[in-house]
Amino acid sequence: PKGVINDWRKFKLESEDRDSLSLSKKEILRQMSSPHRSFSKDDKDTRQRFCRKMSMQEYELIHDEQEDESCLQKYRKRCMQDMHQRLSFGPKYGYVCELQNGEQFLEAIEKERKTTTVIVHIYEDGIKGCDALNNSLTCLAAEYSTVKFCKIKASNTGAGDRFSNEVLPTLLVYKGGELLSNFISISEQFNEEFFAVDVESFLNEYGLLPERELPALGNGNGNMDEQDVE
């Protein structure tokens, strides 16, 4: 696509060492990054000569293996960073929030952004499956930091009669203040021993989790090399 090609040309221009280029190459790169430069009618012959010359040197500049491989890697990283930024708008959490009472429960749902998924685990200590689900949600909260994971004891909700031990653990999923899903006795959906990956697969079956976040870009150690994306 022309837009991608022009973006690549502009990036290459910005990445070139200006001091190491000849004046002719600088001019060619400038023209490459501004492909819609207009010429006067009296400059038709110059334009034709320049276009022929530019196409040859442009090819050499764009397809030089050693220089372009490094530049292309930087360009890819920048594109991935830009895409990651666009997809990762909104608040980040990364942990399971403990709600203390019914008021906090309502606030966690009603005062959140309409685009944010809120997953609430209603539990009680000593109930089978509750501890395993809490541990699983802690792992998922780190993986899906744009999802707001919460937990609250049934006895603290102010509606303990609705959440008897027989329906625990219960998982409620909200978005935009609306209840999307209500899973009572959710541990019955899994084996006696279950883990985060099991809960993740279950939620994904219902389309309740977003796409996994992109991993950190950079070198093999997971650290971003700032010089690579300048």
Uncertain regions: pLDDT < 50 for 5+ in a row? 35-39, 216-220, 222-230
Please provide the count of β strands.
Answer: 5
The CATH superfamily of the domain at 96-206 is Glutaredoxin
User: Per the principal axes of the C-alpha atoms, what is the gross shape?
Assistant: elongated
Second CATH tier, the architecture of the domain at 96-206: 3-Layer(aba) Sandwich
Region (Disordered): 25-45
Family: Belongs to the phosducin family.
Pfam families: Phosducin (PF02114)
Domain Phosducin: 1-221
Commentary on this structure:
The two termini are 24 Å apart. Among the domains are: 1-35; 96-206, Glutaredoxin (3-Layer(aba) Sandwich), CATH 3.40.30.10. A 5-stranded mixed sheet has the order 1-3-2-4-5, sandwiched between helices. Helix content is 44%, strand content 12%. α6 (130-143) packs across α7 (196-205). The chain has 7 helices and 5 strands; from the N terminus they run ααααβαβαβββα. Residues 35-39, 216-220 and 222-230 have low confidence and may be disordered. The radius of gyration is 28 Å and the shape is elongated. It has helices at 2-15, 23-33, 44-63, 65-87, 102-110, 130-143, 196-205, and strands at residues 96-98, 117-123, 148-153, 170-175, 178-183. With 230 residues, the protein is α/β, with parallel strands linked by helices.
